[in-house]
Amino acid sequence: MKPTIRNKLIWGYAGLLLLMSAVASVGTRALFSLKRDAHEAITIGGRLNSIAIEIQVHNLEAQRRVKGYLADVGKIGPRKAREMYLEEADFEIHEMESLSAKAVAISPTPEKRAKFSKLAESLTAYKLALDETIHAAEAGAADPVRAAAEARYDLAADTLHENAEDGEVAGRDASQSSEENIERTSSRAVSAAVGISLLGLLLGIGASIVLLRAILRPVDHLKEVAENVSMGNLQIEVKRFSDDEIGDLSDSFARMLTAVRYFRMEAEMVQQEAQPGEGGAV
Amino acid sequence: MTLYEQTIAVSKAYLGPATESFIDRQCKTRLKIEPAGLGLAQLADLAKYVELYGATIMDPEKAKLLAAKIGGLR
Hints:
The complex is a heterodimer.
Chain A: H1 5-76, H2 78-106, H3 110-138, H4 143-230, H5 245-274
Chain B: H1 3-15, H2 19-31, H3 40-54, H4 60-71
Helix pairs in contact in B: 1-2, 1-4, 2-3, 3-4
């Protein structure tokens, strides 16, 4: 393709448009990434934290019910005690199971998933210890057997409590790390947008300078040549700077100047030939 | 197309409106022939004069280029 001024302008500004599109797409991508991280921070981190707190609440309530059951089972009988305390405790345990499964599913990292898996495991151990304790209480087991079962239940309840606390911390961490992600992504987005904008600006300035030089330099030269010729200086050289429309104009100007030089020399020669003893040069 | 007409045609791009006058002058004063009678035998000499005297009114490189073109006419 011939590097004409029209082509230079078209390709120059097409390049600038492409660059601006790239800047816009990077900026848009960064914004969407920021939005996604913010969404994660709100949903995942906050959700994990609240799940862990909910498990704590259900755990305390379940333990309160179980303690009530153990205290009253001897007085009101197993059936009544089950109705009064254990049905509610079962509901709390079921809620804890459902919440811990949800927490495992939405945990963003393997570490956090492991913490909530541990919580689910301790919940299973808690249920087993509770069954054992209920069985001992209702079967009228000896005091040491019953005391041992209750001790195992207490230990399982404590373990569950500790693991729920760990889950709460993990949820808080997830929330915090999501906030850090937002911070990191936003600062990265700002740096990228500023950097690419500056690069675009520099390239735009560079492209404009190149375009202006490509057009103005030969035009300035032709202007200088025309001024010299108009002042009678025919010895000035016409340079061809580029292979475009102005280059063609330079060629025409050079041809015209050659003809003017020749006609002037021819006129001088005719004058000299009119005077005897002098010859022509061209 | 005669050799003279071909010479004028290739020289136009270099000499513009002075072409006919310049070539005629070389034929008449240097080669001592009528321009219309320009033949292959005089072409090398014409090219030599075009390079030599053309350099006085245009860029010597261009004059050399024009001379080469004229010398290559058949």
